[in-house]
Predict the structure of 2-C-methyl-D-erythritol 2,4-cyclodiphosphate synthase.
Amino acid sequence: MKSIRIGQGYDVHQLVAGRPLILGGVCIPFDKGLLGHSDADALLHAITDALLGAAALGDIGKLYPDTAAVNKDADSRELLRGAYAQVQAAGWKVINVDSTVIAQQPKLRPYIDQMRQNIAAALNLPVDAVNIKGKTNEKLGYLGRQEAIEAQAVVLLTAV
Ligand SMILES: Nc1ccn([C@@H]2O[C@H](COP(=O)(O)O)[C@@H](O)[C@H]2O)c(=O)n1
Ligand SMILES: C[C@@]1(CO)OP(=O)(O)OP(=O)(O)OC[C@H]1O
């Protein structure tokens, strides 16, 4: 049997006024957005870390330091594609992705299908190999107070 690997990823970014809210490569209408060096797409960052973790290639900050001017305002779809190129060069391909975005507001459901399509395109996967779940934080803590949005992801790789 071909070997398989699992990886998990996590990210959180602060929600602030004056920034666009970008999740899964979708710009979501909202009165606040995520703060970061890049476009701060917490979902794509969590998936990128899950990919790199499964292939034992470190983490997103190792590939794309937040001190590098080239990464300023980067489109996280490009970061995800670049990380996946390294994962593929190491002899792996993705089987599937599952993820959770914890956002008290806004409701993500209307945007989930477009996010799945963006992630599937970046990873050369069928859309039904990518799942995204939205959760509130039941108004608890900093997520519940809409001070941040968090994302968690797992990916499964198989040897090519
Ligand atoms: N930002 C969010 C949060 C939740 N959803 C959807 O609502 C359902 C219920 O959420 P709970 O946190 O109350 O369990 C959840 O299963 C999602 O379908 C959402 O779309 N966006
Ligand atoms: C993506 C990078 C690089 O621009 O910066 P941020 O957008 O701040 O995101 P984070 O998830 O904190 O870490 C990875 C970074 O190195």
Observations:
- The CA atoms of residues 21 and 33 lie 4 Å apart.
